[in-house]
Amino acid sequence: xxxxxxxxxxxxxxxxxxxxxxxxxxxxxxxxxxxxxxxxxxxxxxxxxxxxxxxxxxxxxxxxxxxxxxxxxxxxxxxxxxxxxxxxxxxxxxxxxxxxxxxxxxxxxxxxxxxxxxxxxxxxxxxxxxxxxxxxxxxxxxxxxxxxxxxxxxxxxxxxxxxxxxxxxxxxxxxxxxxxxxxxxxxxxxxxxxxxxxxxxxxxxxxxxxxxxxxxxxxxxxxxxxxxxxxxxxxxxxxxxxxxxxxxxxxxxxxxxxxxxxxxxxxxxxxxxxxxxxxxxxx
Length: 283
What we know:
By secondary structure, this protein is of the alpha+beta class. It folds into 2 domains: 7-158, Chloramphenicol acetyltransferase-like domain (Chloramphenicol Acetyltransferase); 198-257, no CATH class. It is built from 5 helices and 8 strands; from the N terminus they run ββαβαβββαββαα. A 5-stranded mixed beta sheet has the order 1-6-7-8-3, covered by helices on one side. α4 crosses α5. It starts with 6 loop residues before the first strand and ends in a 50-residue tail after the last helix.
């Protein structure tokens, strides 16, 4: 398959909670760190292959109804996501609901792995990641799309706010602070998709092993390769004697590794940074 992905929107509706939020939980205060963090959607796309008669004309409607019913029930546990921001100091848990969309994908699921352009995956997202809807409208959006073969991607876009960063630990500022701005729209960025076989990753791990890291992980081995190649690629634009600074960021799920058990319904992100000064060689 070549060219851009084409998705045809079919419907959009608001899903309400299956039961109302209690009055004492109607105000979810944001911490200071959450106040200054950029408000943006965190997207995830889950692909499901055809199962049985999932390509039957009436099966899509059944699956959509099942998803909407499940979403309505789960919102009672994650009730802040059915609310709206209030002065960027708190979330008003007013049970306004989450958005649910249905769409048709004009291709087959098997065509997706052949897509050389990773940016095409953004086509599945119903809302832009940096959309102002994150500030003024919904906190959670779910879209069920259907391929021509009967397969289905489910797209979820959510604005995460961690439970453990409470206002009691990091009190919010009064009046509320404005969130950090997004990078300029003319910022030069590129997205690339790399596929590594198991044998290639094993070879990378063996090559990356050394005195400092005798048994590098898959993530470490692949990160070193990509980062090193990136530095070599931009070396032609580097002033001699003034190496350009670079930064690598990883998203890692550490919830199950914390010393103190985290709540089952805990959501959100923790950011941590470190710096390296060693020059990456060409060898």
